[in-house]
């Protein structure tokens, strides 16, 4: 494989997710962490909602910072399903860093997120007290104390992303919770896998509704493409999402499509609502139904479908 560097037996690699209410300092910290060590940038425009925000490459580690789309948008259509997806995504990361600004009191928004984090008990959570340059030493001490009481933390770290105070420490602490693993990404590589998996899940879910007994495991959804539509007016972006639904037999294809395409249209409408809620942007969803014979028994085909 090209792009992978030599690595020692102590190499650690894994995923971290920075959460926190709006304005908590997540983006600034991400940039400070990734900084000049940035290993990936997206080739696509409008990447703020991209799942992978950056990779902190160090000699002995690779810390992959990901977003959890949907975390801040509960109470939408498919709300419960979305919350489950968020919890499932959070459970997939190796460590969660929750950003709490030192110069603001803990509020309902923080408690809401903390409650969501309680739903993933096995994942270590690190409290990151941001913007520490904005407060006095005493006030920082108090902030650290009240943050400590919010929930069970694996670590509590103060940081200032703008004055570069303790940014390396945050990277150290997050990395310490990563598993021993060879590098997961070659330098220069970008992927948005978790987001794609969640989108595919929403489509599969919508497609199975009402026909779960008929097509239990014979259905796979694969996101082929997610690209921002070009030439859209400022402030009104549209994301083109193309998804293939794979079934095993033509009879199953007929079930999915329905009379005159009516069922496929319903699937599209339901799935689109969920995807828009998840990604926070308008979506044009293009669904195609394809037959992949016996895909469940063919490892190569399974790989292609992302299993
Ligand atoms: N003084 C100071 N300001 C900071 C620091 N980190 C972030 N800020 C400021 O706080 C504001 C919010 O920071 P962001 O990084 O955009 O916060 P965010 O959590 O990504 O916000 P959302 O994208 O709304 O979720 C910005 O104006 C930053 O410049 C810090 O360490 N010190």
Automatic annotation (TrEMBL):
Region (G5): 159-161
Highest taxon in the source lineage: Bacteria
Location of the KH type-2 domain: 211-293
Chain spans, region G2: 46-50
InterPro entries linked: G_ERA_dom, GTP-bd, GTPase_Era-like, KH_dom-like_a/b, KH_dom_type_2, KH_sf_prok-type, P-loop_NTPase, Small_GTP-bd
Keyword rRNA-binding: yes
Compartments it resides in: Cytoplasm; Cell membrane
Spans annotated as G3: 67-70
Alphabetical list of Pfam families matching this protein: KH_2, MMR_HSR1
Coarse class of the protein's main subcellular location: cytoplasm
Keywords in alphabetical order: Cell membrane, Cytoplasm, GTP-binding, Membrane, Nucleotide-binding, Ribosome biogenesis, RNA-binding, rRNA-binding
Region of interest called G4, as start-end residue ranges on this chain: 130-133
Residues engaged in binding GTP: 20-27, 67-71, 130-133
Chain segments carrying region G1: 20-27
Entry's family note: Belongs to the TRAFAC class TrmE-Era-EngA-EngB-Septin-like GTPase superfamily. Era GTPase family.
UniProt function note: An essential GTPase that binds both GDP and GTP, with rapid nucleotide exchange. Plays a role in 16S rRNA processing and 30S ribosomal subunit biogenesis and possibly also in cell cycle regulation and energy metabolism.
Subunit annotation: Monomer.
HAMAP family found in the cross-reference section: GTPase_Era (MF_00367)
Name this protein carries in UniProt: GTPase Era
Organism field: Saxibacter everestensis
Lineage, top ranks: Bacteria, Bacillati, Actinomycetota, Actinomycetes, Micrococcales
